[in-house]
Specification:
Length: about 180
């Protein structure tokens, strides 16, 4: 019974505080300008969209090829090279690539720190590209190791793609 009385008091109290059409119109007009600015700059360029899709496919392809090599579903790079240390290094790199892909996508979607995440990914990729060039330069052979060679040779392309994507990214709160 008390809850019914409390409910009636709340309803009757709210009924006395109705907004009229003029007040509702004033509230809506106050937010129209900020909504127009946000809606106008939400869309990213076609270049950005293409690059983020390309990078997603590249990283996922790298991770899939790594796991295929890890579980002997593809021709091995070399019997002497397929040691536990090799897998530890490439497992770490696969994990870093996966999480950088997750953070790049989250940064783009939520508009939080996208350019910083892209810069971190570029620094990591430059470091690992130099490592790959020094360590595995003698192993690049498209006839013997096509998957591994394609990965090593395509590394500079992904670095350029991430840099270009970071530069072509538009913040949602910027006014054109």
């Amino acid at each position: 019974m008390n809850s019914l009385l409390l409910g009636r008091k709340c309803v009757s109290g709210m009924a006395d505080k109705k907004l009229n059409d003029i007040e509702i119109g004033a509230i809506l007009e106050a937010f129209v300008e900020s909504r127009d600015v946000t809606v106008a700059s939400i869309n990213q360029s076609r270049t950005f969209k293409f690059l983020i899709v390309f990078i997603n496919f590249y990283v996922l392809g790298f991770i899939i090829i790594y796991y295929f090599l890890r579980y002997n579903l593809l021709q091995a790079v070399g019997i002497g090279l397929m040691t536990e240390e090799f897998f530890i290094v490439f497992d770490g790199r696969a994990q870093i690539m996966f999480w950088s892909l997750v953070f790049i996508n989250m940064g783009a979607y939520f508009n939080i720190g996208f350019r910083i995440i892209s810069l971190i990914a570029i620094v990591y990729l430059l470091n690992s590209t130099v490592d790959n060039a020094v360590i595995f330069s003698g192993l690049v052979s498209f006839a013997d190791r096509p998957y591994f060679s394609a990965f090593i040779v395509s590394r500079p392309i992904i670095i350029i793609a991430i840099a270009w994507m970071g530069l072509s990214y538009k913040n949602r709160l910027e006014v054109d």
